[in-house]
Design brief:
By secondary structure, the chain is α/β, with parallel strands linked by helices. It has 17 helices and 15 strands. The strands form four sheets. The protein has an eight-stranded mixed β-sheet, with helices on both faces.
Length: 482
Amino acid sequence: MLHIDWLPNKKDTLPLYRQIYAYIKHEIRSGNWPINSKLPAQRSLAAIFKVNRSTVQTAIDELMADGLLESKPGSGIWIANNTWSLFSSPEQIDWNFYVESSTYRPNLPLIQEINRAEFKQNIIRLGTGELAPDLLPHKELTAILQKTSGNIKSFGYEQPQGLLFLREQLCIHLRKNGINVSPRSILIVSGALQALQLICLGLLPKDSKILLENPSYLLSLPLFQSMQVDFAEVPLDSEGINLRTLAYQQKLKKAALLYTIPTFHNPTSILMSEQRRHDLLQLCRENQLPILEDDVYRDLWLDRPAPPPLKSMDQDGLVLYIGSLSKAVSPGLRIGWVVGPEPVIEKLADMKMQNDYGSSCLSQYAAAEWLASGFHENHLRRIRAALCIKRQTCLDVLTQHFQEIASWHIPAGGFYIWLKLKEPISLPKLFKMALAENILLNPGSIYDPLSNRHLRLSYSYASSIELRNALERLAAMIKELN
């Protein structure tokens, strides 16, 4: 989309259409608007420039006469291929060709729109998967950063696997959940998403298949298809991933890896039972199917601690384990970790060095001090209490306004309520209606392309007052669409 942040001067002696003509010509000539780019509709341009549509039409007619623009029937007005032949400067590179030819797929348009809308003023974020700013430990992290600034011995690069002090603290942290490893089995990464990228690029053969739950957070990320990885989906039930379908899919697809979020699954918040975890490990052991366990929500239990991680039950080196501080402490630290067999960690560490030469030493020192200081458990108690209140606010409003139109289960932890509408509706239309009222949604189609009956509601970001207000209005919109 072309960026326009200019208005004609109505007090200028130069006619408005000539000012618009000169502006568009300048944007094309400077390369800000590449060839093969489409102009907004004339009605939209008139609204942007705050002039009559006839004024825009006159300017465009002259630009077309000059060969700068061309009309494609049924498709609008485009910047012409021969633009640069009109100037004395050399013909400009068609950057659109490079953008569109790249093997790296862009985000889904809906996700791009969500990413932009999250920073609008007065927006109520009903789908955001992060803690509200007032739940982040500002005071404690500030104290740690002040202390850390005087203790850092070097501002240079760290070891390929990450700061040893941090990996030692993670060993202590992981031991609380039954995972007993040495620092050599841990790689520090810039958030869990980087761990996923490194594993897919560094460990999987070309055109590999990954088994994963449906719906799944991973289905919202085109970057994995960009890496020539294919997905085979396995449904969930109330106890987690369906093992009968998993066994059938593995027999059919011969996947290289199973990706799972067994604890407070994103987006459904389902908590895999302890028995299902044991059965899953046994099935994967029999099929020699490695498991990638994404456990970033573990600390966010609300009613009682979750069953032990799959990694804690793993006696065969079958499980790669991903954790992070982004969900429970601070997304801005960009600190996550991978736990696995030493040869795997060494390979991934070498890849990470090729990519970014290691995560920020400042963030690593801060994360290590955070875990060593004893702040973590006190902070978790505070945010669990706050999330319990917000969860209850959501459940109260759902019970009052959504019983006729939707169903849901009560999440035992994490951030999300997976709302299932009783009747299918146009999720894009609902998204637009809500956005027009400053309510930002995450439609279920992001996590399951075939879903037209789900919304991922998050109670982690908006205040209780905002949650109540937005959910009541959302119920009215859904009833109107029905």
